[in-house]
Design brief:
The protein is an alpha+beta fold and 245 residues long. The protein has helices at 2-40, 44-54, 62-75, 79-92, 96-109, 118-128, 130-153, 160-182; strands at residues 184-188, 192-195, 204-208, 213-220, 223-228, 231-236, 240-242. Helix 1 (2-40) packs antiparallel against helix 2, helix 3 packs antiparallel against helix 4 (79-92) and helix 7 (130-153) runs antiparallel to helix 8. The protein starts with a helix and ends with a strand.
């Protein structure tokens, strides 16, 4: 009897969750439709308010909303925020055209961090070809397993270069898995200070103006470990727009 009651309870809970989720999804879609209608009518201010409500909701087309918010903010002259949304769009749909557009806006506003330097270029390639890199590593892993298994099966010694290759593979796989969580980018939303260690009591070693883009390599509490002008410094998270992965 208890088993039956438990099963009925679980079915009811599942139905309730699906029902409430469908209502929420419909509400988000209604907001998106209303925002699109306002955007098409060139009522950009009101459209932006609605887009921002659902901007981070994974149930909507975040790439499309990012692009429209970038257009609205560029149209209104808010270039730092336009760059923020354009960067988010780039993270969803990386392409040379979008990268060049960001670079053009940054050059016009004299913002740093958008140029094709080595770090930005490598990470752009990583974003653009992530799935191919992942498949390549999976194929390589299968190949290594087959080679090592066959050697062990036939009693052959596993040579040093095989171990080196296996360790290299593990390191690349670990890098691929951990890179999104350890490496991020951010747009400075207001003038912020650079400090040489993660504390508001730390000496100020520089400052960054709004609109500049920085690379983040870790964090501690509210402090982001950033690379800026070939040096490492800490920046308060509240002064940044952290870009979506």
């Amino acid at each position: 009897m208890r088993t039956l009651q438990s099963a009925i309870s679980k079915i009811f809970l599942l139905f309730f969750l699906l029902f409430t989720q469908s209502i929420e999804l419909k509400a988000q879609n209604d907001i998106a439709k209303k925002a699109d209608s306002l955007f098409n009518e060139k009522n950009y201010t009101e459209a932006a308010k609605l887009y921002q409500i659902i901007f981070k909701d994974p149930k909507v087309n975040q790439a499309n909303i990012s692009l429209k918010l970038a257009y609205i903010n560029e149209n209104e002259g808010n270039i730092p925020m336009a760059l923020y949304y354009l960067n988010n769009y780039y993270n969803f749909k990386p392409s040379n055209e979008v990268f060049d557009k960001m670079n053009k806006l940054a050059l016009a506003g004299k913002y740093q961090g958008y140029e094709r330097n080595n770090i930005n270029f490598v990470f752009a390639l990583y974003q653009q070809y992530y799935i191919f890199i992942l498949y390549g590593l999976i194929i390589l892993g299968i190949f290594l397993i087959v080679v090592l298994y066959n050697k062990k099966k036939h009693g052959k010694p596993i040579q040093r270069n095989n171990w080196i290759l296996a360790l290299t593979y593990m390191a690349l796989l670990a890098l691929l898995i951990n890179l999104p969580s350890t490496y991020r980018t951010a747009i400075v939303k207001e003038r912020t200070y650079l400090r040489n260690f993660p504390s508001s009591a730390a000496p100020i070693i520089g400052e960054i103006e709004p609109g500049n883009k920085i690379n983040i390599f870790g964090s501690k509490d509210i402090w982001q470990k950033a690379l800026w002008n070939r040096g490492v410094a800490y920046v308060n998270k509240n002064d940044l727009w952290l870009l979506e992965d």
